[in-house]
Amino acid sequence: MIPIRDTIRSRSFPFVNWTIIILNSLVFFYQFNLNSSQLDAFVQTFALVPSQITSNPMSWYPFLTHMWLHGSLMHIIGNMWVLLIFGDNVEDRLGSVRYLVFYLLGGIAAGLLEYFFSAGSDVPALGASGAIAAVMGAYLIFYPRAKVVTFVPIFFFGWFVRISSFVFIGLWFLLQLFSGVTSLGAAASTQVSGVAWWAHVGGFLFGLLMAKPFCLGKCQRQEYADEHYPW
What we know:
One of its GO terms (biological process) is proteolysis. By secondary structure, this protein is mainly alpha-helical. Strand 2 and strand 3 (157-164) form a beta hairpin. The chain has nine helices and three strands. Strands 1-2-3 form a three-stranded antiparallel beta sheet.
């Protein structure tokens, strides 16, 4: 299933969400222009390499920096597209400053859980997907009745369908959790598939649990504006 858009219109311009997208893109552009040895050194320094943190607990900064790196063009496009769909509404509900703090802490929580399940791994974990998973968790709390316009490919055909955010995000989380559990037999959760499943789980659980506390009773309520599109 490929998400196309949601049906909730943001009431304010998502300044922080767009800033995050632009910064991720700039970092990826910088990575793209490095030669192989420079790129390897960059990734080893700023990605989350669990074994390095285990051997040097003072190296805490990768928990913050890993969420700004991406491994491929499709990796960053996929992540930024999902952030574009869900992030604007969460920023609208939390406010820009709290949204930024929430996003960063969600990424850190994702990195911590990934590290917990792969402390001895030499495989770098990188990408914004853990922080974006936190945004998706918050979206599920704030907009459980929203709809996600989704493209469902079947063989050579495909259909656009509207799926409730509860179903779409819920199925996504169950897939991450199942994949994380099945990866436990490997030395690291990224070892088999190249995907940091537990980072997704950690970020999502952070978003699910911390969305309401971040509101502190001051978040404005938002109507469910299900706009009518021809498709």
